[in-house]
Amino acid sequence: MGFLDNAQEMLDKGVSVAKGAVSGVAVEQQAFAKAFVRLCADGYAQGWHEGNGGNLSYRLKPEDVASCRSFFYDNPSSWVPLGAQADNLRGEFFMVTAAGAHLRAVPLDPDAAAGIVEVSPAGDAWRIVWGFKDGAVPTSEFASHAAVHSVRKEVTGGADRVLYHAHPADVVALTSVLPLDSRTFTRTLWKVLSEGMVAFPRGLGVVPWIVPGGPEIARATADAMRGFDACVWAHHGAFCPGHTFDAAFGLMQAIAKAASVYATARAMNGGDGELPNMIPDEGLRGIAEAYRLPVNESFLA
């Protein structure tokens, strides 16, 4: 791309911003964008986002798109392969953190550390329509996000719109000491924290270590998220979906707290995972019945 092309692109973006300035509330001031920024700040404050670790995406509602259209670039970027086929995401718009962006930077400069992309009519590509200043692009794990969004849109009837990926230290640590199977991992966390079953009654899917960012981990994560409440990536972190930003953040927080309680109790027990006092199996069933939870019956004794 030559100098004149760059200049024209900057002019197009400038015109889009100028149009928006006289036609409504800027994207950064939209309620969904403020919630997006807040989650990034809250996650960083928890210590879950070392360096550029972690990412976030949100599937915009039609009214979000309508309120932001005047701020979209007159000339969006070229289409880029999505890395996943997502027929039920055709024409959808997503706010996504940028590749390499530190989540602590999102509140400081939202349209550089994040942006909005549109999914192609064929459901197999994306293009930038807002943000991602200075040549930024969506997170390298956007293929995983798209694959999971597709599944969660299907299984929740469109209710899930948020997908949050973070690196809580104790969750990652447990993947080095617990068997990497969903039943063991889920039951371990259920039995040390009463809130665990309430927060993730369908359990946690566990994906063994796979190089991040590629189609293999995208498929494995999407498969896990079809039946589980959240997904743990071995030696990496966790993925939490939600109807809202608060729901996704709260789910991550509950998983992190349960992992922390187990790690602390195990350390107090001299490193032995056979803890003398845990919630008994009949107690788990009692929690499920008391709160009328859609519990994964195969994970109960």
Secondary structure: elements and pairs:
Blueprint: H1 3-21, H2 31-45, E1 55-59, H3 62-68, E2 80-81, E3 93-97, H4 110-113, E4 114-119, E5 125-131, H5 142-155, E6 162-166, H6 169-174, H7 182-190, H8 194-199, E7 204-207, H9 215-225, E8 230-233, E9 237-242, H10 245-268, H11 281-290
Parallel strand pairs: 7-8
Antiparallel strand pairs: 1-3, 1-6, 2-5, 3-4, 4-5, 6-9, 8-9
Major sheet: order of its strands?
2-5-4-3-1-6-9-8-7
Q: How many β-strand runs?
A: 9
Query: Mean of the pLDDT scores?
Result: 91
> Please, how many helices?
11
Main sheet characteristics? 9 strands, mixed
Strand content: 5-15%
Outline = elongated
The parts where pLDDT drops under 50 for at least 5 residues are: 1-12, 14-23
**Rounded to an integer, what's the Rg over CA atoms?**
20 Å
The rounded distance between the terminal residues' Cα atoms is 62 Å
Which class of secondary structure composition applies to the elements?
A: alpha+beta
What does this structure look like?
- This protein is about 40% helix and about 15% strand.
- It is α+β, with helices and mostly antiparallel strands and about 300 residues long.
- The chain has a 9-stranded mixed β-sheet, with helices on both faces.
- A hairpin with a 3-residue loop joins β8 and β9.
- α5 packs parallel to α9.
- The termini are far apart.
